[in-house]
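Q: what does this look like with thymidine-5'-diphosphate bound?
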Amino acid sequence: MGTIKDCIIIKLNVIHRSAGDLAVVEGGKDAPFPFKRIYYLFNVPDGVVRGGHAHKHLYQLLIAINGSFTVVVDDGFEQQEVKLFKQNEGLLIVPGIWRELKDFSGGAVALVIASEGYDAEDYIRDYAQFIRFRNGDSVNS
Ligand code: TYD
C-alpha cells in the first residue's frame, strides 16, 4: 500500500502537429500499470465534490482532458491537493489512498484510466474504515 508520495504527476507523450496535438497513454508505459477500464466524469455541477473513497487494489491515472479540477489525496497520515489542468499530465493514484475531486471548472472532463474493471468490493467508502484499513485491520466492504 502506497503513500501520497507515490501519487505522482506523469507527463504524457504529446505528438504536436500543425493539424493538432495528440496525447498517448499506453498501459505499462505511460500509465505504469496495464489497464482494463476507462471512464470519464463530465457535466459536474458547480460546487460538487466527487470521490470520497479509497480503493484496496485499484491503480488509477486521472487526466483533466478539458478544463480543470483539484484532487485531494490522503494516505491517512498526510494530505495533498493537486490541481489538474494540463492535457499532457496525469495524476497517478495508487491503492490505499483516500481521494476527493473538487473545484471542477465549467466544462471540465476528468478522464480516469483504471487498472481493473468496476468492482464495488474494492471500494472503502467510510473514512473511519479507511483509517482502520491503513492501520492493517481487516475491512469487509
Ligand atoms: P463512484 O465511483 O462513486 O463515483 P465518484 O468517485 O466519481 O464520485 O461511482 C458513481 C456511481 O457509478 C456508483 O453508483 C458506481 C457507478 N460506477 C459504475 O457502475 N461503474 C464504474 O466503472 C464506476 C467508476 C462507477
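The first helix runs from residue 127 to 134. The mean pLDDT is 96.
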